[in-house]
Amino acid sequence: MSFQNFFKKGAVLGFGIFCIGASNAVAQQGIVIPQRAPMNVAENNNLYCAGYVQKSAIDTTNKLVGAVEEQDRYNYSEGNLVYLNMGASKGVRVGDMMSVVRPRGQVKTAWTRKNDGLGFYVQEVGALEIIRVKAEVSVARVKTSCDSILLGDLVQPIQMRTSPLHQQRAALDLFADPSGKAMGRLFMARDNQEIVTRDTIVYIDLGAEDNVQIGDYLTVFRPLGKGNLFISDEDESVSARDSGYQSFEYRGGRFSNQAARKSGDTAKGKVVTTEKAKEDRPSDLRKIVGEMVILNVKERTATAVITRTAQEIHTGDWVEVQ
């Protein structure tokens, strides 16, 4: 979807939602309604404002150096006029569209096995349309803003993007076996969210070097028993060492009726704790919590959008290509 159509989609999507309800009512009367075209996985803000983490150096030559109303404000948004330090000498022409980006800093995270670094986070903050060109500078109108635009933000030729289409898929299999394909971690979410849900933009440590591609579906999971952000320090309901829970009138022994079981076929062994009971089970048991689709791929990372959830998803969760 182009930036020219960026602003029209809201009305189109709203009309589409209305048509869904209308078509259901008409279908009950036996009237055949043509099927709607497949919808995109990502629209508008989630497609052109998703941001990315890249390893290679970014071109810092071209940037915003001024604004018509800079005496009154320091941040700019849709409709404002700004100056770029690039003009006819750099091949700029009236009508050109430019992307505004802002490198935020190097990514440091515990949620990756790529210990030699993932790169730096680049925020995509908006788009400009060139309306006047001089020799060394140009005037541009802010066509759309994903965040407040600041002087000093970098300007790059816009990269047209195509969103993957929604696919007719079976219900999310909460007990699916591992696929054996590339596996990584969800190391960060847009706007520093720690708990994310559907339609949230996230970043994973799988990239071109891992052979992932735009449109790939990934399962989001965590090892069974992990992921509680508020862990209790009590492993059992009642410790086997506790006494005083037996009946005063009909004493059966110095044990709690609420304690875990004793080992051995005559209950003469040690208490079987929760952790002990897990020791012999397969090591690959996992809890599937959602699904995502890749929107953009860089050298070591990819940007993705959450498409389905079984519960909340956390930064640090594992991902696997389906």
> Would you tell me the overall average pLDDT?
84
Helical amount: under 10%
- Give the percentage of residues in beta strands: 25-35%
H/E series: HHEEEEEEEEEEEEEHEEEE
- The shape is elongated
Low-confidence parts: 6-23
Count of extended strands = 17
Question: Compute the gyration radius: what is it?
Answer: 27 Å
Q: How does the major sheet shape up?
A: 7 strands, antiparallel
Give the termini distance in whole angstroms: 26 Å
Compute the number of helices: 3
Structural class: mainly beta
Question: Can you describe this structure?
Answer:
The protein is mainly β. It has helices at residues 9-27, 45-48, 274-277; strands at residues 52-54, 64-67, 75-76, 81-84, 97-106, 120-133, 138-145, 149-150, 154-157, 183-189, 195-196, 201-204, 217-223, 286-297, 302-309, 313-314, 318-321. The strands form four sheets. Strands 1, 2, 4, 5, 6, 7 and 9 form a seven-stranded antiparallel sheet that branches. A hairpin with a 4-residue loop joins strand 6 (120-133) and strand 7. The longest helix has 19 residues, at 9-27. Mean pLDDT is 84; it is low at 6-23.
Provide a compact summary of the structure.
With 322 residues, the protein is mainly beta.
Key features of this structure:
single chain, about 325 residues, mainly beta, seven-stranded antiparallel beta sheet, six-stranded antiparallel beta barrel, 3 helices
